[in-house]
């Protein structure tokens, strides 16, 4: 690999040429408008390329990514993206997407020190602490993916609680919040069934999704013991 990264420029030229050959006029059309219906809020992990996972072209998916797909009131970057997507682009769907075996979630779960990101991951540790009793019932291998999904539910609920989404609902704008998880092992997306389109549905949708999550992760013998 060269110090100037010439190989990446060559790949870019080849991609642009292939795209224009496959779809003549693609880039000139792309210049004219950006009208995505979806905002994807995902992890910055390089193994999770948003557009490719849902087979959408540039311009069809607005994307924000950070470590462990976290949405908190102090993050003006994420909130600015949500505000622009909802108010300016008028997206209909906001999708929070976690992924299996997430390194950030794993670090938060196990108190691993990795640097400045430790401060950011405190938000995921808050989720861990909130659900500690449930997580302690799982094997170490299952705890990571369970916390991945718990984190998605919490962050989706955080999106619902932003003034941006609340104001959109108040003025009658259609905005639907979703929580999904992506499996690195199989390439498939799974709907965690936290789907919210109005304020009064936030907590019922969260509680249903949380109950379904726990039912999936708790071993059968544990559930049977609890029932006895």
TrEMBL record:
<dbReference type="GO" id="GO:0008270">
    <property type="term" value="F:zinc ion binding"/>
</dbReference>
<dbReference type="Pfam" id="PF00484">
    <property type="entry name" value="Pro_CA"/>
</dbReference>
<keyword id="KW-0862">Zinc</keyword>
<protein>
    <recommendedName>
        <fullName>Carbonic anhydrase</fullName>
        <ecNumber>4.2.1.1</ecNumber>
    </recommendedName>
</protein>
<comment type="similarity">
    <text>Belongs to the beta-class carbonic anhydrase family.</text>
</comment>
<comment type="function">
    <text>Reversible hydration of carbon dioxide.</text>
</comment>
<feature type="binding site">
    <location>
        <position position="43"/>
    </location>
    <ligand>
        <name>Zn(2+)</name>
    </ligand>
</feature>
<dbReference type="InterPro" id="IPR015892">
    <property type="entry name" value="Carbonic_anhydrase_CS"/>
</dbReference>
<dbReference type="InterPro" id="IPR036874">
    <property type="entry name" value="Carbonic_anhydrase_sf"/>
</dbReference>
<dbReference type="GO" id="GO:0015976">
    <property type="term" value="P:carbon utilization"/>
</dbReference>
<keyword id="KW-0479">Metal-binding</keyword>
<keyword id="KW-0456">Lyase</keyword>
<feature type="binding site">
    <location>
        <position position="45"/>
    </location>
    <ligand>
        <name>Zn(2+)</name>
    </ligand>
</feature>
<dbReference type="InterPro" id="IPR001765">
    <property type="entry name" value="Carbonic_anhydrase"/>
</dbReference>
<feature type="binding site">
    <location>
        <position position="99"/>
    </location>
    <ligand>
        <name>Zn(2+)</name>
    </ligand>
</feature>
<dbReference type="GO" id="GO:0004089">
    <property type="term" value="F:carbonate dehydratase activity"/>
</dbReference>
<feature type="binding site">
    <location>
        <position position="102"/>
    </location>
    <ligand>
        <name>Zn(2+)</name>
    </ligand>
</feature>
């Amino acid at each position: 690999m060269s110090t100037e990264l010439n190989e990446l420029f060559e790949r870019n030229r080849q991609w642009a040429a292939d795209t224009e050959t496959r779809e003549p006029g693609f880039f000139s059309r792309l210049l004219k408008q950006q009208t995505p219906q979806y905002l994807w809020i995902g992890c910055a992990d390089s193994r999770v390329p948003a557009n490719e996972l849902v087979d959408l072209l540039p311009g069809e998916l607005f994307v924000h990514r950070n470590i462990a797909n976290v949405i908190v009131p102090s993050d003006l970057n994420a909130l600015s993206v949500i505000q622009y997507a909802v108010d300016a682009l008028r997206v209909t769907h906001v999708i929070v997407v976690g992924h299996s075996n997430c390194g950030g979630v794993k670090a938060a779960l196990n108190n691993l020190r990795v640097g400045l990101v430790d401060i950011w991951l405190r938000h995921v540790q808050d989720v861990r602490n909130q659900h500690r009793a449930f997580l302690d019932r799982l094997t170490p291998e299952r705890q990571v993916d369970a916390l991945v999904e718990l984190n998605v539910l919490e962050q989706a609920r955080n999106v619902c609680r932003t003034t941006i989404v609340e104001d959109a609902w108040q003025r009658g704008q259609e905005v639907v919040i979703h929580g999904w998880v992506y499996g690195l092992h199989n390439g498939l997306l799974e709907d965690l069934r936290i789907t919210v389109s109005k304020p009064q549905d936030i907590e019922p949708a969260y509680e249903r999704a949380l109950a379904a999550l726990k039912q999936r992760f708790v071993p059968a013998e544990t559930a049977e013991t609890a029932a006895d």
